[in-house]
Amino acid sequence: MKRRVVVTGLGIFSSIGSNIQEFWDSCLNGRSRVEKIPEQWLEFAEYKSSIWSPLPDFNGRFSRADILHYDPVSLISFITAWEALESAGFVLSRQGSKGSKWEVEGLDTDRTGVYMGTGLGGGSSLLSNFSHHSLQKSKIVLTEICRSIKDEAVENAMRHVLTHMMCAKRFSPFVVSKVMPNAVSAVLGVKFAINGPNNTYSIACASSTIAIGKAYEAVRTGEVDTAITGGSEYAADDYGAVFRGYDMAGTLAHTSEDSFSANRPFDKRRSGFLYSQGGSGVLILEDYETASARGARIMGEIIGFEQTFDAHSMMSIEEGGLQIERMIKNLLEKADVSAQDVGYLNAHGTGTMNNDRVEADVIQRLFHKSLWVNSTKSLLGHTLGASGAIEAIVTVLTLANQVTHICKNLENPISNLNFVRKSSQAIKADIGLSQSFAFGGHNAALLFRRSV
């Protein structure tokens, strides 16, 4: 017999909020954080886009040892998992007076699994250490030249070049464990002493939606009773190399000197997505009976997961959206839900030309006209592998509170869908859908029911 899977805890770290309360308040008030890209990046390339959505500082939350051992993508994964566990009603206590591990009281760690998604993993550490390694010989040569030059101006210029080439001051002895994508999940198993299945899904921008889907299936079938699931991404590096990759691919919002409203999903003037430094979102999923037995607060329920594959292109969406349509139909059929029953849809909504058009067309073909359609990326920008988890959290909060955030900067919609056009929009919806698409051709969707 299949079991009911409920959401009992939420945690988040994002550019507009470093905890659930702050994040949700920012969402309902339509806040965004958009800034110029770091000056340092401009020394390495010219870009079509010049804005991004940076994260709040988080290093102050960690010891020097943690910062040395873990890539930022793993650190923010830990931050959000901690909040999600506390949100679910678990009590965390430190193991040992100076230990860096925690016991989660009341959690059966053998019957708990970790299922996390990430697109890039420890890409920041990879780029930093690879650059240090590959430029080491150049550093030696330039240092010798500097010593032999008599001209002070030339010597200073050479030293300036050297300093900027060598952003990393050392090659980390922990680079392998920092870079590996599975560290995003492994850090949670290590820090919280969880012995159940520990899996990472690296499927570009659908990573965390699929991770949550796999966690849902594990709880539903009885493989585990509890799952820590979601996604984490940290897409900043000293050189702006990852940003440049997306910029050259033509996926980022084109910007002029003062165009901080360039991020506009589903708008006719859209030109691409707002690049985010990253973020993390974590949900605690439990079997309904397990959650009820410990008196947990039930925030919502997952009632379906489905995924398909376009088999079309590594970087562009299939023009007809046929596999997206098949995914949604299969999802609704398996959950025994009709399209008419769905009241809210958190779209992938990146702001790119083809994606938004195809997605809007599919929604229009399948759903009723009163369906509320939204894009959380209109506030946050694109958090890549973490986006699905963050959007799943928004869907849970929207259904629980019967209110949702604005689809920001939407002035001239590309279709007559029922887009959310104002802040703190009151809605009536018992069922919500959150969907993600990814480079490679991956499509994934989750179906949620409001807790009553």
Protein described:
The chain is an alpha/beta fold and 452 residues long. The chain has two domains: 5-122 and 180-450, 3-Layer(aba) Sandwich (Peroxisomal Thiolase, Chain A, domain 1); 124-176, no CATH class. 35% of the residues lie in helices and 20% in strands. The strands form four sheets. It has an eleven-stranded mixed sheet with strand order 7-6-8-10-1-11-18-17-12-13-15, sandwiched between helices. A hairpin with a 3-residue loop joins strand 17 and strand 18. Helix 5 runs antiparallel to helix 6 and helix 12 packs across helix 13. The model has no long low-confidence stretch (mean pLDDT 92).
- Please state how the strands of the largest beta sheet are arranged side by side: 7-6-8-10-1-11-18-17-12-13-15
- By CATH's scheme, which homologous superfamily of the largest domain applies? Thiolase/Chalcone synthase
pLDDT averaged over residues: 92
Q: Please report which band the strand proportion falls in: under 5%, 5-15%, 15-25%, 25-35%, 35-45% or over 45%.
A: 15-25%
Number of helices: 15
The shape, in one word, is globular
CATH class of the largest domain: Alpha Beta
Helical content, roughly? 25-40%
CATH architectural label of the largest domain: 3-Layer(aba) Sandwich
User: Helix/strand-derived class?
Assistant: alpha/beta
